[in-house]
């Protein structure tokens, strides 16, 4: 694309060569003369003097303090969001596969939309429905009576069990499993465990993205539901009958036990654990490696080994750090008192 085209998409202002040809995007440290990059974080401002990029997206307030004439600039209000737009443009241009590979299996009774892509060694079982413009890459397994909406991307080695529903514009990355049995067992009199049938399903709403090797279990009865706009990182475990509300984001290695309910616009840090049958209200931020053992009914930031309001956790941390000083003062007081006696 010419720089003028990119500036038009971003509603930006060009400083430099408007006819410069851009072939892709790159990191500011490693971009070449045919690529465009950006600066939004002050930590990366130092790279303006050394980057090999042909063009760079900067804010209106960024001062170059340099005589570089070999790099063109697009001035915008928000460089980060502008760069995301350009990433989407170049990605859409390179992700246009369509057709059905020879070495795949589509069972009778399946419904396939227009302009879809199905890669080698994909298996789609009976009565499943695949929406238009959806791409399913190699080695995926789609069980019977599965519904996948339009404009979805299912990357290699994803498994989707029977009866699950995937709505429009969903991205599922490699190795994820949707709809495996929930971890349900009843302890018997002799100490052994009897499996509880898992007869529910998983529903993934629109505009959800699921990272690699994430597992979302089917419900015992009813459904496990991931609502519109949720973003899940890699290696997350979501148990049966969990409900995650709209636009919540969850980082890697989080475990959520059965029947927990997570509100809207929550942010959950990596390696956190949430026990079953509790509720977390809207607009809660949970720090990394936090154990949530009770329901949270008030929006805010929670941290600590056991989840508590962030300010309370800081007070506890300060108190712990001051224990040695307090102990020393107590010893001094004891010495003074014993001396008086």
Structure description:
- The chain is an alpha/beta fold and 341 residues long.
- The strands form five sheets. The chain has a twelve-stranded mixed beta sheet with strand order 6-9-12-15-18-23-26-29-32-35-37-38. The protein has a ten-stranded parallel beta sheet with strand order 7-10-13-16-19-24-27-30-33-36, with no helix packed on it.
- The longest helix has 18 residues, at 323-340.
- The chain starts with a helix and ends with a helix.
The percent range for strand residues is 25-35%
Report how far apart the termini are: 89 Å
Query: Rounded to an integer, what's the Rg over CA atoms?
Result: 27 Å
Query: Regions with pLDDT < 50 over 5+ consecutive residues?
Result: none
- Biggest β-sheet description: 12 strands, mixed
Give me the oligomer status.
Answer: single chain
User: How many DSSP E strands?
Assistant: 38
What is the helix fraction of residues, given as a range?
A: 10-25%
Enumerate how many helices there are, as a single number: 4
């Amino acid at each position: 694309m010419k720089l003028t085209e990119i500036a038009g998409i971003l509603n930006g202002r060009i400083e430099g060569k408007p006819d410069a040809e851009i072939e892709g995007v790159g990191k500011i440290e490693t971009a070449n003369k045919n690529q465009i990059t950006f600066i939004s974080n002050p930590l990366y401002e130092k790279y303006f003097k050394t980057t090999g990029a042909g063009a760079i997206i900067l804010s209106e307030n960024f001062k170059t303090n340099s005589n570089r004439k070999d790099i063109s600039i697009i001035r915008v209000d928000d460089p980060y969001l502008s760069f995301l737009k350009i990433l989407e443009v170049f990605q859409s241009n390179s992700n246009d596969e369509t057709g059905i590979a020879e070495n795949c299996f589509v069972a009778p009774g399946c419904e396939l939309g227009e302009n879809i892509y199905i890669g080698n060694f994909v298996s789609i079982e009976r009565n499943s429905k695949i929406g238009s413009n959806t791409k399913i890459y190699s080695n995926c397994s789609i069980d019977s009576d599965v519904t996948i909406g339009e404009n979805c991307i299912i990357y290699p080695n994803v498994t989707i069990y029977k009866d699950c529903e995937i709505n429009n514009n969903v991205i599922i990355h490699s190795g994820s499993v949707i709809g495996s049995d929930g971890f349900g067992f009843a302890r018997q009199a002799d100490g052994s465990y009897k499996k509880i049938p898992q007869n529910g399903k998983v529903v993934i709403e629109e505009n959800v993205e699921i990272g690699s090797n994430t597992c979302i279990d089917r419900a015992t009865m009813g459904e496990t539901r991931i609502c519109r706009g949720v973003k899940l990182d890699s290696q997350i475990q979501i148990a049966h009958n969990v409900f995650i509300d709209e636009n919540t984001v969850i980082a890697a290695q989080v475990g959520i036990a059965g029947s927990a309910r997570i509100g809207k616009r929550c942010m959950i840090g990596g390696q956190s654990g949430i026990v079953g049958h509790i509720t977390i209200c809207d607009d809660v931020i949970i720090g990394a490696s936090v154990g949530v053992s009770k329901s949270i009914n008030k929006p805010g930031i929670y941290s600590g080994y056991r989840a508590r309001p962030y300010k309370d956790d800081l007070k506890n941390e300060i108190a712990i750090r001051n224990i040695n000083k307090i102990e020393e003062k107590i010893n001094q007081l004891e010495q003074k008192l014993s001396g008086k006696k």
